[in-house]
Amino acid sequence: MSEVPPIVRLRDCPSVPWLNGGGTTRLLWSDADGQDGFDRRISIATIKAPGPFTLLPGVDRSLLLFEGDGLVLDVDGHRLFLQPTVPLVFSGEQAVLVPAGQAPVRLLNVMTRRARWTHWLRCGDESAADADCHVLLADGPAGSGMEAGDMVTAAKGLAVAHIGFRPRNLSERRRISAGLRR
Fold first, then answer.
1. How far apart are the first and last CA of the chain?
2. What is the pTM of this model?
3. CATH number at residue 112
4. What does the pLDDT look like over 49-73, one tens digit per residue?
5. In-domain check, residue 91
């Protein structure tokens, strides 16, 4: 299993354009093994134009507005307004559309393969000792070199989104817990 590195700089993550031309993704971390795709994935998405999200059957997703004033999404025909600090959780089977007429935004995007993992995403909660990693929502202190979008495993006193992963399989949970106690 791929472990989350102590720090990932957003500026070092290549920007990959979407196939539909509506935005780009910068992959912060994934446990992809090159054969079966990912089970867990964290990225920053920039939405620049209207269009549909890619359907991802079997995947649970969470979005958090990272930069911008808000984003309107049509999710299975229901209009939702994504605001800063309030994650949107949905399944990869749901039809999600970015309607026309919106300013560009950046989103934190967390995805897990539902059969194997679950995840949670919280914003700004100081009591996130159970988090596996944190993504900075604003630049770090002057001189720290840390910028909004960087991912870290320790983030005391910084404006962050906290992300946690848990295996769905009980025997996998026990194996991971045993490994952490060594």
1. 16
2. 0.83
3. 2.60.120.10
4. 999 999 999 999 999 998 888 999 9
5. yes
